Each structure stands twice: as C-alpha cells, then as structure tokens.
Amino acid sequence: MFHTYEEVIQWIESRLIVGVKPGLERMEWMLEKLDHPEKKITTVHIGGTNGKGSTVTYLRSILENAGYKTGTFTSPYIEQFNERISINGQPITDENIVKLGNIIYPLSVELEETELGGPSEFEIITIMAIYYFAEMHPVDLAIFEVGLGGRFDSTNVIQPLLEIITNIGLDHVKFLGNTHQEIAFEKAGIIKAGTSLITGVSQPEAQEVILNKADELNVPSFLLNRDFSVVDHESIPRGESFTWKDDETILSHLELSMFGRHQTENAALAVKASLILEKDHSFKIEEKHIREGLKNAFWPGRFEILSREPLVVIDGAHNEEGVNALVEVLNNRFTSKKKEIIFSALSDKKLDKMIANLDKAADQITFVSFDHPRASNVEDLYEISNSKNKHYNKDWKQAIEEEFRSLNSDEILVVTGSLYFISVVKPFIMDVLS
To answer: Which of 120, 88, 127, 81 has its CA nearest to residue 104?
Structure first.
C-alpha cells in the first residue's frame, strides 16, 4: 500500500533495472485483470523516430480548441513525471498517481510470479495511463505516443481510430534494426485493420514498407508530399507560417509558435488527422480550431527559448535527425549570433554524425555528462569532435553557469542533447535565470 507520491515514483523507477522488455504479453495479462480498460477509450496512436511529441501536442491543442477533453500519454518528461499522463495539457495529480500505484502494484507482484515475469517501468506507466483515461478521468479522445518502435511497444494494445507515423531515422538500432526498412517494419506494427494511416516518412524504402503494410490491412493511407503538402513556408519572428493543402482543402497562412521547418511537417500530420476525425468519426472540428490550436501549441524542450536577454535555448536534439533540425534553425534564424553549444548524450546513440553537425554550427562546443546509467563519457564525446574550439567539463552545472555569466549580446547559448539531460537542465537554468 502506497501512501505518498514519492513511494510510487520510487517503485516505478526501480523497474528501470528490468530494462526494455519487448512484447505485449505482460500488457495483455494486466489488461485482462483490469477488465480491459483499453476497450473503453477512443484513441489515436502516434509513432516515428522524431516529432512524435510535437505532433501529439498539435493534435491535442486542435482538439482542445474544438472543446474536446483530450488525454495524452508521452515520454519522457521535461519538468515532472506527471507530464507523461495529461488531460488538456494538465498533468495528472500526485494524488491520482498514488491511487493508480495502489491499483497496479498488486498486479505487478502477481505478474512477477508468472513465467512472463514482472512489468517494465514503461509498461507500468502505460497501464496507468490507459486505466486513468478509461476509468478515473474519462476523456473524449486519448493520444498515445509510442515509446520504442511500435510492433512490440506496450502502447500497441490500443485499437485507435487512426495512426500517425511521423518519420524514420536510424535510432535505437540495437532494438529496431540497422536499416530504414527494418525500422519502418517495426514502426508499421502499430497499423491496424479498420483504421486510417497518416505518415510523414520520406525515405522511399521506408515508405514502401509502411504503405505496403497499410495495403495488406486495407487501411487507407495518407502520405505527406503525396496526398497533402506544406507550401509557402516562411519563418516568422515568433515561429513558422505555412499553407496546408490537399485536393479538397487549402488552409492558408497557418501559424506555429514552435521553430523550424520540421515543425510545419509535424503540424501538417496533425491537421490531416483532425480532418479525418472530423470527416470519418463525427468530431466537430472547424478551421478556426485548427488555426488556434496550431498557434497555441507548445511542447517543452523543443527549441525552447528560456531567456532572450541573454539568449538561452534548450533543445532535445537526441539523434541525428534532431541535430539536423536544430542546426537548420540556428543557421536560418541566428546567422549573426555566435553559437555557444553545450551537449550531452546517451552512449547508445550514433554520435559521430550528431557531433560532426554540431561542430559545423558551433563557434564553441562544450561536452558534459550527467547522472544517467546510459550517459556518454565526457572524454569520449570530446574525442569524437573535430571542432577547433572544443572543451569538456564533467560538471554540467558549472559549465552552464560559466557560459551564462560570459554570454554577450551577440551570442546564443544552446544546451542540447538527450531529453533526459534536458529534463534536469531546464529547472537548473530557470533557477540561474531567476
């Protein structure tokens, strides 16, 4: 019996030692014990390598503007664990975390005694989200973000109205495969009969895998730049502007408050999803809801400006595609600024190309480490870099404080890398700024 929020979080985090446990058998066992709450919620499922969280946010914001109570399940968190399970952007309360812990813990203990073994940390959190949206605080629609891959991800027990696959990159190759085709196969595992598929995947070989899977299941598919597109993109002072179009609809001069061309593509997927929900599933979503939803959408840790004077940005660029997007924004928007970059990453990432691209963008780059079992060794990051102005500091707090104190008006400080790193950095920087 848990009495405090801290006890529940400690238990959940203790399951990290189990590691990644692909497969749905443990999820199905627990859902059976709970009388199948997954069958009581209306859902959208979002997978992909990058852009999942932003796409979740755009769609949630559109639905919220249309008056719908919308749940979201995302990972990881930036400021607090509770963010992972939210309704209309409001994180679950500590009290409800305790209630859920006391419901799920006995199942975990019982499951541990079976041949399946106990649940992983992510499986526990997924079960908590499903039960919360189904039984404790029912929602009009819940958006579930895939944790890893798709086919064997614990979220793949839901039966959604539609799936979105944002893009494919060579990430988590240890679990998902070494090629775009192999990774696309895992991502395509979320496609189910009786749904619709929306995807922004760009590589032809990955497109083929995903679209063939949809065809096998007789699922209508909608591909960015084939069935709908982003045109007239323009970077504006506080975000991006673009026009969304397909054969039936043109939505001109949509505005985003998040930065980067890649965000227009994430938003385009959410627009298509909202139109399908309106057309095929009786959701009442008007153009004004789309416009306001996109403009109001905010996702922490994605090129988030924490201070404008001095200019300080955090960005969870945790793989090659994320770094490419970050560098594009820096090169397009901050050409006159000297770029001071602080970077840390997990050791299981493909770091060489990430660091090479950061080297090109940075006037100075400092490598740091942080307290995480998979965090890269700071000397290893330093050795990979070919920058002529590179440094390392084992104390990331000290590195940030030193950079902050010496930052001039013609410079921008960018703290980037693993989202786990960003989650500990953000509150620290906010304290420094205050």
So the answer is: 127
Residue-level pLDDT at 176: 63
Q: Is the pLDDT of residue 284 over 70?
A: yes
Contacts of 297 (CB under 8 A, 6+ apart): 54, 57, 58, 60, 61, 256, 257, 258, 267
- Give, in order, the Cα–Cα distances in Å from 322 to each of 41, 49, 137, 301, 319: 32, 9, 34, 12, 5
The CATH classification of domain 5-296, taken from the options 1.25.10.10, 3.40.190.10, 3.40.50.2300, 3.40.1190.10: 3.40.1190.10
* Strand, coil or helix: 375: strand
Contact 94, 5 (CB under 8 A): yes
Task: Please name which of 30, 78, 68, 34 lies closest in space to residue 161, comparing C-alpha atoms.
Answer: 68
- Give the dihedral of Cα atoms 55, 185, 324, 243; nearest 10 deg: -40
Here the contacts of 113-119 (C-beta below 8 Å, separation 24 or greater) are 114/29, 116/25, 116/26, 116/29, 117/18, 117/21, 117/26, 118/15, 118/18, 118/26, 119/15, 119/18, 119/21, 119/26, 119/27, 119/30
Query: Mean per-residue pLDDT for 154-163?
Result: 97
Residue 276, judged by CB atoms within 10 A of its CB (0-12, 13-18, 19+), counts as buried
The superfamily (CATH) of domain 304-433 is Mur ligase, C-terminal domain (3.90.190.20)
Q: What is the mean pLDDT of the chain?
A: 94
CA atoms of 280 and 306, how far apart (whole Å): 40
DSSP per-residue codes, 117-159: -PPPHHHHHHHHHHHIIIIIS--SEEEEE-SSSSTT-GGGG--
The full set of domain ranges for the chain reads 5-296, 304-433
Report the pLDDT averaged over residues 131-147. Answer: 97
Cβ atoms 166, 150 nearer than 8 A: no
Asked whether the predicted pLDDT for residue 171 surpasses 70, the reply is no
Q: What angle do CA 299, 284, 245 make, to 5 degrees?
A: 65
* Biggest CA pair distance of the chain: 61
Helix extents (H) in 281-316: 287-296
What is the C-alpha to C-alpha distance for residues 298 and 304, in angstroms, rounded to an integer?
A: 9
